[in-house]
Design goal:
mainly alpha, 0% strand
């Protein structure tokens, strides 16, 4: 058997040309459909905020307004968050569904 020197080895394979890097797509946020109860006066506030947003040339959907409110609440200190919660009139709890998943605990 013959020994092959490094110079007699198979020709080096050139590296393929680099492909331009494509930024990774952001994963879509999972959307959850919810149903909730609120006093009519609070629901009417949504209509007023929708009108206000339209007047600012930035129409907004109900879900956007609710999400904006959540983000605003998130920025509050615990003391101010508590004040906001305490200022709300309590509502009766919603009835639990009886489909096996949402059964009330006894």
């Amino acid at each position: 058997m013959q020994k092959t020197s490094a110079s007699q080895a198979a020709p080096a394979i050139s590296e393929p040309a680099q492909q331009p890097t494509v930024p990774a797509k952001k994963a879509k946020a999972r959307v959850v459909r919810v149903s909730l109860k609120m006093p009519k006066a609070d629901y009417e506030l949504i209509a007023a905020f929708k009108k206000r947003a339209a007047e600012l040339a930035r129409p907004a959907r109900k879900s956007e307004l609710l999400r904006a409110g959540l983000h605003s609440l998130q920025k509050l200190s615990d003391a101010n968050f508590r004040k906001v919660l305490d200022s709300l009139a309590p509502l009766k709890p919603a009835r639990q569904k009886r489909n096996g998943h949402d059964t009330p605990t006894q």
